[in-house]
Design brief:
330 residues; alpha/beta; Metallo-beta-lactamase, Chain A; 35% helix; disordered N terminus; binds zinc ion
Length: 330
C-alpha cells in the first residue's frame, strides 16, 4: 500500500491548463479503460458516455483524479462495482456518490454488508472493537450503500459484464470479464506486489489457490492447456496488465504454496500460538512488520494457512496453559 499524496491543487482549472494531478485513462481494449494506481480502477464505457467503474481506490484523492480523467475522456459514472470489501478497493465510493448521487453501488453479498458497515473490516482482523491504530483509511473506509449482487452476467450502468466468484483473498470476491478483458481483482497479484508482500493476504488459502487455478478454467483452459487467446488481457488489482494469464496464475500459486510451507515449517519447530508462528514465519521470509495493521493482516494470513493445514490433518490444535497452540500431529 502506498502512502497518500497530499495535493494543494484546486479542483477547478482553466480548461487550457493541464492540472498538476492530471493522469489520463489508459485504453486497454475498445471501450475499456484502466486508471492505474496503488489499486487499479477499471472504467468500462457503455453507450452515450455512461460508464461502469470497477473498484474506486483507497480514498478521495484517487477518486478525484479518476473523475477528472473520466471527464477528460467524456465519460460519466453510471454505476460502481466493488469486487470486494477491502478499504483500498471502495475508499473512493463516498466522493463519487457525493458528486453523482444517482450512481448505484454493487458488491458480492458479504462484501456489500462490510462496505455498508465498514467497521467490520478492522473488527474481524482484530477480533474485537478495533483500537485507534487499526482505524486508518487503509483498514476503514467511509460507509457507502452497496447492494448485494450474485455472480453471473449482469448489466450495470448500461454495461454488460460477466462476474465470477473468486473467494479466498476475501470471503467473497468477483473477477470481472468483458469480452477478452479479465479483471481478476485480488485473486491474483502482479509479480512486484508478490515480491513486496510475500505473505499474500487471504482469509481462506485453500479457496485462494482454487480461485487462482480456476481462472484458467474460466478462460476455457486447464493448467496444461495451450490456448490463451480467449482472454487477451488480464488486469490484477495490484500490478500491470498482462497477456500471459498462465504465468500470472503460476507465480501466485507458487507464492501461496511457499507460505503454506513456511507455516508448516514454523509448526515443525514446536507447537506454538498464532502470534509466535507469525514471528517465526516472518523471520524465515525476511518480513519486518512496523505497524499494528501489518501485524493483524499477516496474522490473518498465517491463521488462514493454519486452517488449511488443520483441514488436511497436517497440523493439530491444542490448548495448553491457557494458550491455543498449533503443532504437528503425534
Ligand atoms: Zn483486497
Amino acid at each position: 500500500m502506498s502512502q497518500p499524496q497530499s495535493s494543494q491543487a484546486p479542483d477547478t482549472q482553466h480548461p487550457d491548463t493541464q492540472h498538476p494531478d492530471s493522469q489520463p485513462l489508459l485504453a486497454l481494449t475498445p471501450g475499456n479503460f484502466l486508471f492505474p494506481g496503488a489499486v487499479n480502477t477499471l472504467v468500462l464505457a457503455g453507450e452515450s458516455g455512461q460508464a461502469l467503474i470497477v473498484d474506486t481506490g483507497l480514498d478521495e484523492s484517487h477518486a478525484r483524479k479518476l473523475l477528472r480523467a473520466m471527464q477528460q475522456s467524456g465519460l460519466t459514472p453510471a454505476a460502481i462495482l466493488n469486487t470486494h470489501s477491502h478499504a483500498d478497493h471502495h475508499g473512493g465510493n463516498a466522493l463519487i456518490l457525493k458528486r453523482f448521487p444517482g450512481v448505484n453501488i454493487y458488491a458480492p453479498p458479504t462484501e456489500a454488508a462490510i462496505i455498508r458497515y465498514p467497521l467490520l473490516e478492522p473488527l474481524y482482523l482484530y477480533g474485537a472493537l478495533p483500537p485507534r491504530e487499526l482505524r486508518s483509511k487503509f483498514l476503514l473506509a467511509p460507509a457507502s450503500p452497496a447492494q448485494p449482487l450474485d455472480a453471473g452476467t449482469h448489466t450495470l450502468g448500461g454495461v454488460s459484464v460477466q462476474l465470477t466468484d473468486v473467494p479466498g483473498h476475501a470471503v467473497q470476491m468477483f473477477a470481472v470479464r468483458r469480452g477478452g478483458l479479465l479483471y481478476v481483482a485480488d485473486a491474483l497479484f502482479g509479480p512486484e506486489a508478490l515480491a513486496k508482500h510475500p505473505l499474500t493476504f487471504c482469509v481462506d488459502s485453500a479457496a485462494q489457490k482454487a480461485s487462482a487455478a480456476g481462472l484458467l478454467t474460466l478462460a476455457g483452459l486447464g493448467l496444461d492447456g495451450a490456448e490463451l487467446n480467449r482472454i487477451g488481457l488480464t488486469v490484477p488489482g495490484h500490478g500491470d496488465p498482462t497477456t500471459d494469464l498462465r504465468a500470472l496464475v503460476q507465480v501466485n500459486l507458487d507464492s501461496l504454496e511457499r507460505t503454506t510451507a513456511a507455516v508448516l515449517n514454523a509448526c515443525e519447530q514446536g507447537a506454538a500460538s498464532t502470534d509466535e508462528l507469525l514471528a517465526r514465519v516472518c523471520e524465515g521470509m525476511g518480513v519486518q512488520m512496523g505497524n499494528a495493521g501489518a501485524v493483524v493482516l499477516n496474522r490473518s494470513v498465517v491463521a488462514a494457512h493454519l486452517s488449511e493445514l488443520l483441514a488436511a490433518g497436517r497440523v493439530v490444535l491444542s490448548i495448553e496453559s491457557n494458550r491455543l497452540l498449533f503443532g504437528l500431529p503425534d
